Amino acid sequence: MAGWMWLRCILGPHLQRIHRSTDQSRLEGRAGRRGWNYQARSLEKHTDSILGWASTLWSLSYYSSPLLLCYLYRKGYICSSKLVPVSQYVGTVLVCLLGVACLRGWGRWNNSEYLQFLSILEETKNNPTASNKKKLKCYDFDFSYWPLDFSWTEVSNPKLSKAGVSLLKPEPKLRGAADSVLHSVRTLPCHIISFLIAHSFGRRMLYPGSVGLLQRAMRPMLLQGQARLIEEFDGQRNKLVACDGNEIDTMFVDRRKDGEQTGRTLVICCEGNAGFYEVGCMNTPLSHAGDYSVLGWNHPGFGGSTGVPFPQNEANAMDVVIQFAIHKLGFEITDIVVYAWSIGGFTASWAVMSYPEIQSIVLDASFDDLLPLALKVMPNSWKPLVQHTVRQYMNLNNAAQLLKYQGPVLLIRRTKDEIITTGPEDIMSNRGNDLLLKLLQFRYPKIMTDEGVKVVKQWLGSSNPIEEASVYSGYEVDDDWCVTVLQSYQPDSEVLFPWSVGEDMTLEGRRQLALFLARKYMRNFETTHCTPLPASEFHSPWRLYRRNADWM
Asked: For 186-207, how does the pLDDT look when each residue is reduced to its tens digit (9 = 90+)?
């Protein structure tokens, strides 16, 4: 019995923090659930530090392995006479690390807090009742040991899970049968190189938050952010399993109250390429005076989520998050708002494309297409290879997905953005401009003629509110008249985009409508790309109201 308990302590998860239970906080008259960091004893602390350094060195060796192997090969170390003693050294180190792990298990065995946690974890695994899960959620530990809270298969056909959810694919070029075979043979080297790029440094450049070393460096900050969400906002951490088998780490803050409308709207937050819900854009709607319930999640390969953040895995993760919100948390699809920052615009636009009943979408510092941004940072001579790699493996086509959505949209542009611009300090090269233009040209093609595009670009060239107001007043835009024209276009029933409004209108009228719509669909925020969005800048998208209903 004692040996079995020691083995469980050796193989058990790393315990980081203990949160005060809600019942205990209520009895003590506390407003929050202020907890405390797990206090490891001396033996466990030192052995854990040794194993942590070993893990860091392994990560460094892994990422530098191509250069390291080349160096060893050139020095003549990769041969049987050299490898045998090296393997002996490696074996000795592994035996020593195994001994260190055993000592850490001994230290845990002598800690009453860890033993109590371990017994609750075992009890929850054997009997996953709501009461046991509530006890377990008072502990912050390795998420891989966390019990399952929701699976995609609970509401969908498991037979459909292997292929994953559907994505928009680039249109294939039409070729004859013989040409197709010849073209495939000719481009085979390009396919192989693209695959290697995408699955090595390409994916890590696009999603640096998936790099283990960065996560290790950010761990104290992430633990602090997670503790804040749980203890100050009574957040609920949950593990979801997507259709591809990836485990998705989520955090839900429920602000619904009986008999009140507060918290009835759920904001699902999609983070950036180095963002985590613990310290990311989830904090913006949370700071909004309690108006929203909020659900945050980490990309595959980020934080406690497993997998790698390729577009298919990203969409699969977003799908299970929405299913969880509807079927487990009990929100109506029409009460869900999707909010995304930066690269999170891909999963957000996929969500509204796949679930068109979603109430609205807010995209902050996002772009229309990844390809122009990828070409910006790669050599010009690599252009064909970059195009093929992006379209084949990293096709983040935000604009194409957003055009499939008929509901309200708000774009937030950072006027000093340095990340999603293709030119240095050039506000007109911000790819958020292209996202707005594509959206308006699709929804209002008769308004967004060449002249309409010209005046909108003039407005987009404004870098501060004074310049914006100057352009707007220069064309004498009458907001009331614009609203009346749009309302009169379809007074009785909803019309799907694209609209033909502006077809029989003067040039001056189309200019006014173009500027009016641009200002309704996009708001400017004078800051850089990575500055957190204040709650005061988070708004519901514009809606055009008619007499009996509302529509966008």
From this structure: 778 888 999 999 998 899 999 9
Residue 113 dihedral angles phi and psi, to the nearest 5°: -65, -40
Question: Could you tell me the end-to-end alpha-carbon distance of the chain, in angstroms, rounded to an integer?
Answer: 66
DSSP string, 274-320: T--TTTSTTHHHHTSTT-EEEEEEPPTTSTT--S---HHHHHHHHHH
Look at residue 70 and tell me whether its pLDDT is greater than 90. Answer: no
Which residues partner with 374 through β-bridges? none
Angle at which helix 465-474 crosses helix 450-460, to 10 degrees, equals 150
Is 17 within 8 Å of 1 (Cβ atoms)? Answer: no
What is the spatial distance between Cα 277 and Cα 510, in angstroms, rounded to a whole number? Answer: 42
Question: What single DSSP character describes residue 174?
Answer: P
3-state SS, one letter per residue, for 340-400? EEHHHHHHHHHHHHHCCCCCEEEEECCCCCHHHHHHHHCCHHHHHHHHHHHHHHCCCCHHH
- Could you tell me where the beta strands, DSSP code E, fall in 236-281? 236-241, 247-253, 265-270
CB environment 441-454: b (16+ within 10 A), e (fewer):
bbbbbbbbbeebee
Report which secondary-structure segment, H or E, holds 322. helix 311-327
CB atoms within 10 A of CB 499: 16
- A 10 A CB-CB count for 116 gives 13
Which residue from 422, 417, 507, 415 is spatially nearest to 461, judged by alpha carbons?
415
State whether residue 34 is helix, strand or coil.
Answer: coil
- Measured between alpha carbons, how far is 444 from 514 in angstroms, rounded to an integer? 9
Beta strands in 78-222 (DSSP E): 139-141, 150-151
Q: How far is CA 117 from CA 19, 145, 231, 262, 343, in A?
A: 12, 12, 18, 35, 38
d(CA 276, CA 283): 11
CA distances from 95 to 8, 42, 57, 173 (A): 19, 22, 17, 57
Question: How many angstroms separate the CA atoms of 492 and 502, rounded?
Answer: 19
Helices 42-63 and 80-109, axial angle in degrees (round to 10): 150
Confidence (pTM): 0.91
Helix (H) or strand (E) holding 473: helix 465-474
Helices (H), 19-153: 22-27, 42-63, 65-74, 80-109, 112-126, 130-136
Which DSSP category does 148 fall into?
A: P
pLDDT digits 0-9 by tens, 350-399: 999 999 999 999 999 999 999 999 999 889 999 999 999 999 999 999 99
Of the candidates 93, 102, 110, 98, the one whose C-alpha atom is nearest the C-alpha of residue 40 is 110
